């Protein structure tokens, strides 16, 4: 219900652009959306402001943001905040995503000293700072992160940084029931070639649960409803790659291990 309501607000509301969000790689703006007395903060990413990339087609990242939400919603994963296409905003067509307010009470992914790794965390990799301090990036293995890790394998997410994982709510004043763990910045997804780069490799080799197998079977079947939703955002070859990837993951039956022949951690990882 929360997602459907937020999606309606994003699709139908009047938007006021408040300004640019600093330190973003592409043109990213904070927006306030007003609809029938509801005021919702959102993130607007116009396609015209995307920085060219060598391996992704130009002006497609905002479309991939929307495709990510549509896949997550179709499978009832609820790991991507409501995201819609809008063509009527100041900088032209782009994605509009509900802004997740960080609850400030959860360290799902942590960067700590070697002796400070939380007890419920799985260490991913170590690094050494310029002053010689040894640090370890780790993450917990609770349901929220597992769902994001599962989604990222399926969507072929090439950029799951720690900073792209937020526990919080996109509906102000709606209480603790609206708090979830979300993956944001999903523009580098659905490439036809294998691209997964993530800080969530701690689920590798775990067997998929029945509901995850069901989700993989659903995507491998690619029902018309899902195909139509994705076809507005993705090329035919990318949808077919998604379908084939779901089939392969289902046959393997486990979360993928990090491949040894390419970079598997995004940079910077935080």
Radius of gyration: 18 Å
Helical amount among residues, as a percent range? 25-40%
First-last Cα distance:
32 Å
Task: Name the quaternary structure.
Answer: single chain
The biggest beta sheet, please? Answer: 5 strands, antiparallel
Let me know the average pLDDT. Answer: 92
> How many distinct beta strands?
11
Order of helices and strands: HEEEHEEEEEEHEEHHH
The order of strands across the largest sheet is 1-2-3-5-4
Question: Can you give keywords for this protein?
Answer:
five-stranded antiparallel β-sheet; globular; three-stranded antiparallel β-sheet; 6 helices; 2 domains; 270 residues; alpha+beta
Descriptive account of the structure:
The chain is of the alpha+beta class. The chain has two domains: 2-103 and 141-252, no CATH class; 109-139, no CATH class. Helices cover 28% and strands 23% of the residues. It is built from six helices and eleven strands. It has helices at 2-12, 61-74, 143-155, 210-221, 224-231, 236-252; strands at 14-20, 29-35, 38-46, 83-86, 94-98, 101-102, 109-113, 121-128, 134-140, 165-169, 180-183. The strands form three sheets. Strands 1-2-3-5-4 form a five-stranded antiparallel sheet, sandwiched between helices. Strands 6-10-11 form a three-stranded antiparallel sheet. Strands 7-9-8 form a three-stranded antiparallel sheet, with no helix packed on it. This is Phosphatidylinositol kinase. InterPro entries: CHP03843 (IPR022292).
Annotate the secondary structure layout.
Blueprint: H1 2-12, E1 14-20, E2 29-35, E3 38-46, H2 61-74, E4 83-86, E5 94-98, E6 101-102, E7 109-113, E8 121-128, E9 134-140, H3 143-155, E10 165-169, E11 180-183, H4 210-221, H5 224-231, H6 236-252
Helix pairs in contact: 4-6
């Amino acid at each position: 219900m929360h997602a459907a309501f937020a999606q309606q607000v994003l699709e139908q509301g009047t938007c006021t652009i408040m300004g640019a969000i600093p330190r973003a790689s592409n043109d990213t703006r904070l927006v306030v959306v007003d609809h029938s007395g509801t005021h919702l903060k959102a993130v607007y990413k116009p396609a015209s402001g995307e920085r060219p990339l060598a391996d992704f087609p130009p002006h497609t990242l905002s479309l991939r943001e929307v495709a990510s939400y549509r896949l997550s919603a179709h499978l009832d994963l609820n790991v991507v905040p409501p995201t819609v296409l809008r063509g009527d905003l100041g900088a032209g067509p782009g994605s509009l995503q509900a802004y997740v307010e960080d609850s400030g009470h959860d360290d799902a992914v942590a960067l700590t000293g070697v002796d400070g790794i939380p007890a419920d965390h799985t260490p991913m990799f170590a690094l050494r700072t310029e002053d010689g301090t040894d640090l370890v990036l780790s993450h917990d293995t609770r349901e929220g992160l597992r769902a994001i890790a599962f989604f990222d394998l399926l969507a072929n997410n090439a950029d799951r940084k720690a900073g792209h994982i937020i526990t919080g709510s996109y509906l102000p004043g709606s209480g603790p029931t609206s708090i979830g763990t979300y993956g944001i910045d999903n523009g580098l997804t659905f490439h036809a070639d294998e691209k997964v780069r993530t800080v969530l490799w701690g689920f590798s080799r775990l067997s998929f649960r029945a509901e995850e197998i069901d989700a993989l079977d659903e995507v491998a079947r690619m029902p018309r409803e899902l195909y139509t939703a994705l076809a507005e955002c993705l090329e035919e070859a990318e949808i077919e790659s998604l379908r084939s990837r779901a089939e392969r993951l289902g046959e393997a039956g486990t979360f993928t291990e990090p491949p040894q022949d390419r970079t598997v951690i995004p940079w910077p990882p935080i």
